[in-house]
């Protein structure tokens, strides 16, 4: 079961602008794969991740694992890493959607205008986190293994994935950065803490997911993305000081978005 959970941890969760990265930092980071020595710089995550308007709507995504690297092998190899090779070059398809943001009730404010009508700001496009995460997890682990995904109604950065056998995966986005390149790529990175509960002992780790989205104006798929997910050990892991700031596993995906 631990191998299954670690596979789930590395899957892109679409939880995924709050903090701005240094110009070009995220794009350069992707180009330097797999030579990552530490986590990228990012600010504390507040609010939701806002996507470009051209990502709004419903999509069928084809996700393909194109590379995986264990930088500290053979000294340190995470459980499930070798098992994840079975996903290499095997496309996985699932539905996602990006929708207008619905703010928690605690954040809503009524601002009267001169004619006594409420003012409205521009609509922000965000991921439907529960819908996207559930579809993605079930695509990898099966409908029977994943029961539901719940997002904290007071914070889009906290969610719980409920698994069969009274197990839970708690994910908390702790840091975030975004970047827009000269060719209109939208690049995001999110760092989130993972806690798996329900096994013989709790399991912790830290995941960093960096994704470069690009709109394709004259082709299908309509959007493509390059994504790298990095796994870092938590302080509870006995190999934490040996690994230091370096990732212990890196996974690279190619994502293709087809309009539904």
Strand-and-helix sequence, N→C?
HHEEEEHEEEEEEHE
Give the strand tally. Answer: 11
Global Rg: 19 Å
For the largest beta-sheet, the strand count, sense and barrel status come to: 11 strands, antiparallel
Uncertain regions spanning at least 5 consecutive residues: 10-23, 110-114, 116-120
- Average pLDDT metric: 83
Estimate the strand proportion: 35-45%
Structural class: mainly beta
Give the end-to-end Cα distance, rounded to a whole number of Å.
34 Å
How many domains make up the coordinates? 1
Enumerate how many helices there are, as a single number: 4
Shape: globular
How would you describe this structure to a colleague?
It is built from four helices and eleven strands. Strand 6 and strand 7 (167-180) form a beta hairpin. The protein has one domain (2-104, 121-259). Strands 1, 2, 3, 4, 5, 6, 7, 8, 9, 10 and 11 form an eleven-stranded antiparallel beta sheet that branches. The protein has helices spanning 2-10, 25-31, 129-141, 240-243; strands at residues 43-44, 57-69, 92-100, 125-127, 146-151, 158-163, 167-180, 186-197, 203-215, 223-233, 249-259. It is mostly beta strands and 260 residues long. The protein is globular.
What key attributes describe this structure?
260 residues, mainly beta, eleven-stranded antiparallel sheet, 13% helix, 38% strand, globular
List the helices and strands and how they pair.
Blueprint (H helix, E strand, L loop, with lengths): L1 H9 L14 H7 L11 E2 L12 E13 L22 E9 L24 E3 L1 H13 L4 E6 L6 E6 L3 E14 L5 E12 L5 E13 L7 E11 L6 H4 L5 E11 L1
Antiparallel strand pairs: 1-7, 2-3, 2-11, 3-4, 5-6, 6-7, 7-8, 8-9, 9-10, 10-11
């Amino acid at each position: 079961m631990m191998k299954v959970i670690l596979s789930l941890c590395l899957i892109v969760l679409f939880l995924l602008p709050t903090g701005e990265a240094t110009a070009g930092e995220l794009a350069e980071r992707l180009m330097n794969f797999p030579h990552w020595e530490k986590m990228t710089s990012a600010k504390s995550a507040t609010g939701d991740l806002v996507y470009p308007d051209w990502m709004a709507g419903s999509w069928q995504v084809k996700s393909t694992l194109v590379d995986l690297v264990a930088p500290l092998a053979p000294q340190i190899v995470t459980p499930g890493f070798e098992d994840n090779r079975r996903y290499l070059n095997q496309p996985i398809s699932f539905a996602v959607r990006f929708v207008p943001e619905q703010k928690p009730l605690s954040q809503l404010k009524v601002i009267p205008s001169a004619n006594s009508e409420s003012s409205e700001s521009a609509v922000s496009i965000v991921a439907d986190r529960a819908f996207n995460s559930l579809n993605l997890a079930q695509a990898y682990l099966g409908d029977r293994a994943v029961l539901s995904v719940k997002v904290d109604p007071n914070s889009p950065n906290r969610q719980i994935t409920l698994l069969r056998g009274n197990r839970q995966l708690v994910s908390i986005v702790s840091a975030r950065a975004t970047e827009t390149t000269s060719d209109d790529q939208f690049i995001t990175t999110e760092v989130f803490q993972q806690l798996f509960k329900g096994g013989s002992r709790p399991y912790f780790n830290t995941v960093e997911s960096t994704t470069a989205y690009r709109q394709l104006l004259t082709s299908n798929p309509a959007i493509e993305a390059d994504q790298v997910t990095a796994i870092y050990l938590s302080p509870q892991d006995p190999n934490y000081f040996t690994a230091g700031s370096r990732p212990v596993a890196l996974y690279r995906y190619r994502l293709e978005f087809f309009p539904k």
